[in-house]
Amino acid sequence: MEEKKYISGFPVSSPEEQGIPSCAIIHFFEQLRERDLELHSLQVVRNGYLCVNTVAAPYTMDSFHRIFSAAKGVVATAILFGVQDGFFKIDDLVVPLLPKEWIPDDLDEKWNRLTIYHLLTMTTGHDHDTLFRMWNISDCWIKTFFEEKPAYEPGTVFCYDMGAQYVMNELVAIKAGKNLGEYLREKLFDKLGIEFTYQLTEPEGHYFSSRMQFHPDALTKLSQFYIQKGMWNGEQLLRE
Hints:
The protein is α+β, with helices and mostly antiparallel strands. It contains eight helices and nine strands. The chain has helices at 22-35, 71-84, 116-121, 131-134, 141-147, 162-176, 180-192, 218-227, and strands at 6-7, 10-11, 41-46, 49-55, 65-66, 196-197, 213-214, 231-232, 235-236. The strands form four sheets. A three-stranded antiparallel sheet has the order 5-7-6, with no helix packed on it. The chain starts with 5 loop residues before the first strand and ends with a strand.
């Protein structure tokens, strides 16, 4: 029997063996070329098998890419591990978990009802993205987040708010005693074979997850980890 080939920890298969017509993949690349869309890399996994694995020059499988908004799923993962480790609960109030110097003196009373779940779902109460009030302006990003008055009761209205992600970064760091990237390295990344790098460039010298950089296969592995309901190589890393 022929020994299975593995790439990025996945067994390799032809697309057809997993029910994917190769002509559909070829058509996808033709559409990219026609529309002049830039694609750095592509992996397709079906039934746990890696069916497509390609990187566009000059990039390689060892190239690091900043993940930008994909970081929100990474931050949510860290929060879930924090719940599993007993750091906090999803419905815990946020303000009591933060240092008092990060909370403005004239705190709007609505913030006293803000929970971690509201941060995760971007239903903080803001009606705008607070990050752009923080970036290159604020000396304390979390304080700025709370200085921006909520327009709505937390939990009632969705608004895309990258500031919520930053608050969650620091909730994890406070409880874990290390930044979110290092916490996930220990809990998940090393076990999945995910390599990453990041920069500590924010005003407090803290970690900002959107600056995290991954190899091309990292988000593939993280996606498969969720498809497998928190299991990897037979080990339940995160409770289902």
